[in-house]
Amino acid sequence: MQKLFLIIGSIAMTLAVGLGAFGAHGLKEILTDEMLDIFETGVKYHFYHAIGLLAVGLVAQLMPNSSLLQWSGWLMLAGIIIFSGSLYILSISGIRWMGAITPIGGLCFIVAWVLLAIASWQNL
């Protein structure tokens, strides 16, 4: 599990850097300021939770059999896909209803961090 989340976290970080650069250089002249801000919010949370995935991978070295930790990692990944992904699509396409699913990704992020805290507490 630890190796898997370190790999997924590293790939997520790579994508966050690439998407951030794409937004800053490729979309700056194309998107409105509002849509660029939405895209940047997606990138920001993508970064935070890619780091979270790396943290899950590192903590998993201490708790390799923790199902709570495993759920935390999968929920962080789901949050990146749902939260950041919906904001990327919304900002580039203008499809406003994509914003309606963004909170589901936010909920994934919240639960992921709570599970990381519980897993850590249980294994002190």
TrEMBL record:
| Compartments in which it is found | Membrane
Q: Name one GO cellular component term.
A: plasma membrane
Q: How does it sit in the membrane?
A: Multi-pass membrane protein
What transmembrane ranges does the database entry give?
Answer: 47-64, 71-91, 97-119
Q: What is its main location?
A: membrane
For this protein, the record's InterPro entries field holds: DUF423
Matching Pfam families? DUF423
| Keywords annotated in UniProt | Membrane, Transmembrane, Transmembrane helix
Family to which the UniProt record says this protein belongs: Belongs to the UPF0382 family.
Descriptive protein name: DUF423 domain-containing protein
The protein's organism comes out as Fodinibius salipaludis
